[in-house]
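Question (not urgent): is this output format expected?
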Amino acid sequence: MPNSVYIRVRESLDHVLVSACDKNLLGKTLTEGNLKFSVNPEFYGGELVDTKTCIKYLQNATVANMVGKTTVKAAIDAGLVHEKAVLYIEGEPHAQWVRL
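Got this back:
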């Protein structure tokens, strides 16, 4: 499936946490200086979906965490992330938000 991303959705009484990452990043550790960022399968791994499905879940999220060029670009294109709010770790974009 082109443009595939992993997505995991966790729901509680007050929040919907959506974590999403590019397929090729799952299980990798990104390093930038002293920073080590684990794209942990327990956090990011879940269902493999296309970016349209990922965006539908992100639109309902109260907490979102995304990593990877495909995932973050889809969120930017959907108006869910501002490109100036993106951090880069080893060249890979990372974005997150919390809706209060």
